[in-house]
Amino acid sequence: MLARILPIARVTFLEALRQRFFGFLLVLALALTLASLPLKAIDFGNQELKFLADLGFGVMLLLGSVLAVVLPAQLLYAELDNRTALTLLAKPVGRAEFLLGKFLGAWAVLAVFAVAVAALLGAILALREPEVAARAARLDLAPPELSFPGLAAHALLQVARLGVVAALTLMIGALARTFLYTVVVGAMAVLAGQLVWIAQEALRRPDHGAVAKGALWVSTHLFPNLQAFNLGEALVLAPGTVEAGTVPWLLLSGATYLLLFLLLGWLAFRRREI
Amino acid sequence: MTTTPAITVEGLTKDFRVGLRGLKLRAVDNLTLSIPRGQVYGLLGPNGCGKSTTLKIVLGLVAPTAGSFSLLGDAAASAAARARVGFLPEAPYFHRFLSGRELVRYCAQLSGVPAPAMDGAVERALALADMAEAGARPVGTYSKGMLQRIGLAQAVVHDPELVILDEPTAGVDPVGSGAIGRMIRRMRDEGRTVVLCSHLLGQVEEVCDRVAIMDRGRLVLEGRLDEVLARRDRHQITVENLSPAAREAAEAALAAAGARVVGVDHPRQSLEDLFRRMVSGSRD
Amino acid sequence: MGARLGIVLALALALAAGSVAESAWSRARRAVPELRRADLELTAGQGALLGVLGGFRPLLADLTWIRAYVRWERRDRGCEALLRLACLLDPHATAFWENRANMVGLDMAHWEIRARGGYLKVSPADQQAAFHRFAHKALEGIEEGVPVARRPSALLVLGGYLSETKLGDPLRAAAYYRRAHETPPAPWYCAYFVGRLLKDAGQTREAYAYLREVWQRELSGQRDGSPTELAFLRRIEAELRLPPALRIPRQEWEEGEWWVR
User: Fold this and answer.
1) DSSP letters along A24-58, please?
2) Is C4 in CB contact (< 8 Å) with chain A?
3) Tell me: the pLDDT tens digits for B16-71?
4) What is the pairing mode between strands B210-215 and B23-35?
5) C-alpha to C-alpha distance for A235 and A237, rounded to whole angstroms
6) How many Å apart are CA C58 and CA B269, to the nearest integer?
7) Which residues of B touch A75 (CB under 8 A)?
8) Which end of chain B has a smaller Cβ tally under 10 Å, C or N?
9) In whole angstroms, what is the distance from residue B66 CA to residue A229 CA?
10) Nearest CB partner across the interface for A274, out of B61, B82, B154
11) Structural domains in chain B?
């Protein structure tokens, strides 16, 4: 099975890397992250590191989400519309193998994106941290907290989050008929995922009726809580505030949703007419 | 050697729903067909007659509305059956950034060619398609004919028992078309079954052993090519150096024997033959 | 795998995914600032509700703070609302609360006095009233930030500073420093400030009792024996003429009446 999935993933990865859309978003993300450097001209004190980090996290979240919706949809529909899928699926390649190969290729590109932005952000923070720390010491302020393992953990969480979004988009793409529909519905699903925490919070309160509670329960089980993955600020700038085990639990949560969406995607794709 | 047909379809029907109102469009209508092994089988018909849909059903790419089929004896177009089939779709499109060699290697990997045999299989398929020299170039730089030939190479790289070619010469010039014809004959000589789906009758006539003609989703004629083309009520005698007097004498003799001469004509060579002779040696 | 098995597996995965997500969120939510309805109303007015809900709160808070900072440099009172918004959007950021209290408590009274004609034109009583009004406003902000900021001790120290310098209220200042001392990581001088301020307010015995207890419990064991605090305590012992038995036992490193120097 892997002997067929990996070549598909490899070709998908190479194809995605060559796409102008990916190149444009990657350059934009790196440029925006770099654009935070002139902020040092404003005297923020210890806040400078927070501003740098927040901008990097925001870029990763926004442009990463855009990429995670558009790229898998584009890669799937390029195969279907150009009819390369016809050639591939006439071979002894299962629908699940095809979908998994597309997913892994797209996910690898998204990982390159997240790691590249995180690496640049890490370099910027490492560059500025000594000066900010020296200034804090001069002014008798608390030294700035900065955790590079926290940044690595955040990058890992982003890779997981982008994987969940990519799997969600592929599931929608397997059901949908057009690229545009997939992207629009995918974007709405991502937005819903960013807002699921509100339903999760509401579910904790006891003042709901059975129907409302049922609706909240269904929505919190169907959509992943994507907001939970945005712990960058806490992980990097206040590492002590993140409870032990949070990152592994989030990774496990991401993995279960990822598997769920891929499975649903396969169920939708297995009877699709090519 | 097994005697099971390469492909059988029985009562095959396929309806598509089109438009917002879901209007039913019947692409294949109660088709029953059996394609024997070891021959070149032509599936003919005008555009939209249901040839490609039939092949897609047989390959498991489209689900039939009714009826049954079997591919190399397998009733479900399973991966194991598809591993023994090579397929060149109509107007094939491949990843433009891959080189021809990378594309054929990619398809070989997907077709289950074992790693130790990989290089040999890829080079053999490229040589068969006369693409060994152009194999290093990106697919995006290929002409239409080269695309068809690299498509053929990817279809045969895993040494399949059955090769299905959907319009392999569409848009290809006569020289390229002739090369593809020779490749098809070579495959037959190697004992493979070739299903050739085309609306170019001249080519089908040249390479096919057996043909089926489809129209509006239905089978209208099926049989050995020489049998279906032969007109048993008419005869043709080709002679050289016929003088007008000898011709008149022959016509009189035939009339005396009770035969009716319908026409006397000079045989014509086909434009394709003329074109091939004039541009022989030119490639893509 | 058949479709039926796939559907059963998908249902099982959906159940598992929901439960795992719930566990993950119950851990993660402590690191994510809570958002209250009042905050949402405020941000909705800024047209950023979806961004706020969708995970861009820290970034929007930063941008809001930069806008507030630019207005503060122009001495524009409009910065106050933006400072508040920045604090609500990212309540964990101590620096937002700290800077907000500094800007409101230390600067705005001066802006108002200047706007009313300057220090020579505005009567000392009116100046005093302005300083008090803005200091109270800053302290209100500090009280709002203490339960949610990541380093509340920094805010409490600032509360003590504003209470002493702007309100001239040593008891209130002492209370702030006391809370700061009890909220790690507090600066070393908080307990000493409590003693000094209580003594300034005439509560010398209370000052001695508090600082002695802190010194004995926390400071005496430190490497240098915390001589500043002990010197202060020795001066109070002398001032109150405490009998030697009631005084802190003499330390090994003490020589003569060293604290008088």
Assistant:
1) HHHHHHHHHHHTTGGGGGS--TTHHHHHHHHHHHH
2) no
3) 888 777 788 899 999 999 999 999 999 988 888 899 899 999 999 999 999 999 99
4) unpaired
5) 6
6) 81
7) none
8) N
9) 49
10) B61
11) 7-84+161-229 (3.40.50.300)
pLDDT score recorded for residue B283? 47
Contacts of A105 in chain B (CB under 8 A): none
Residue C250 DSSP one-character state: P
3-class SS string, A184-248: HHHHHHHHHHHHHHHHHHHHHCCCCCHHHHHHHHHHHHHCCCHHHHCCHHHHHHCHHHCCCCHHH
Q: Please report, as a single letter, which amino acid is at residue A31.
A: A
Q: State mean pLDDT over B89-105.
A: 91
Provide Rg for chain B, Cα atoms: 22
- Per-residue burial over B77-87, b if 16 or more Cβ lie within 10 Å, else e, is bebebbbbbbb
3-state secondary structure of B32: strand
Is the pair A, B in contact (3+ CB pairs within 8 Å)?
yes
* C115 inside 8 A of chain A by CB: no
Residue appearing with tokens 């020795």: C234
pLDDT band at C25 (very low <50, low <70, confident <90, very high): confident
CA of C32: how far to CAs of A147, A177, A220, A246, C140, in Å?
17, 38, 18, 12, 24
**Which neighbouring-strand residues pair with B193?**
B162
Longest dimension (CA), chain C: 93
Spatial distance between the Cα atoms of A53 and A69, rounded to a whole number of angstroms = 24
Contacts of B9 (CB under 8 A, 6+ apart): B31, B32, B33, B34, B54, B57, B58, B67, B68, B69
| Residue B17, phi then psi, degrees to nearest 5 | -100, 125
| Cross-chain CB nearest to C54 (options A194, A263, A266) | A194
CB nearest A92 (choices: B61, B83, B91): B83
Return the residue matching tokens 């500090």: C142
Taking CB atoms and an 8 Å cut-off, how many pairs form between chains A and B? 71
Asked whether the ipTM of the predicted complex exceeds the cut of 0.90, the reply is no
The rounded distance, in Å, linking the Cα atoms of C151 and C170 is 23
Both tokens of B176, joined, read 């390229």
The pLDDT assigned to B272 comes to 65
Q: Which amino acid is at C232?
A: F
Cβ contacts of A94 on chain B, cutoff 8 Å: 79
Preceding amide of C185 cis, omega within 30: yes
Closest-CA distance, A196 to chain B, in angstroms, reads 34
Gap between the Cα atoms of B38 and C75, Å rounded: 92
Does the CB of A175 have a partner CB in chain C at under 8 Å? no
Quick one: tokens of A127? 């560059």
CA dist A29 and A56 (Å) reads 8
- Give the whole-angstrom CA distance, residue C106 versus residue A228: 38
